[in-house]
Design brief:
Number of strands: 0
Largest sheet: none
Number of domains: 1
Order of helices and strands: HHHHHH
Radius of gyration: 16 Å
Strand content: under 5%
Distance between the termini: 14 Å
């Protein structure tokens, strides 16, 4: 814990960091597994959409470790939806042409079903976050 940091925030940040790494690994694993199993690209795509929002939530918790699970989930969902709706303009596609990172973060084209899968990811991340917070107790969460 750094000087001036509230009790429990260092542990929460460490858990959020671990969750972010696991989320990225899960996304890569699902993509590889779906390809190996010969499943359609939709399985990996929509799982990736849900995990995108889970990753955004872990970053929200990393930045604000005392955030309530519902607030973190709504924030992650709002960010995910904002990125998706931004794809209705040419800006994300243009940025994606110049940067692989921009393509991974911003995408290129709007796809309405993605909005649903972002909500699925937010709901799952909320459930895990709320469970973890209840397990640690309010004083440490």
């Amino acid at each position: 814990m750094t000087k001036g940091e509230r009790p429990g925030t260092a542990g929460t940040r460490l858990a959020a960091c671990g969750a972010a790494v696991l989320t990225v690994a899960a996304g890569l694993g699902i993509r590889a597994g779906a390809a190996r199993a010969g499943l359609g690209g939709d399985v990996a795509k929509y799982a990736g959409d849900a995990l995108y929002t889970v990753l955004v939530q872990t970053l929200v918790v990393l930045a604000a470790p005392r955030v309530r699970p519902a607030t973190a989930a709504v924030s992650a969902l709002a960010i995910s939806w904002a990125v998706e709706f931004a794809q209705l303009s040419d800006v994300p596609a243009e940025l994606s042409r110049h940067s692989v990172v921009a393509r991974l973060v911003l995408g290129t084209t709007f796809n309405a079903p993605d909005l649903f899968w972002y909500a699925v990811g937010a709901a799952g991340a909320w459930a895990v976050h709320a469970w973890g917070r209840a397990r640690r107790g309010p004083a440490l969460a």
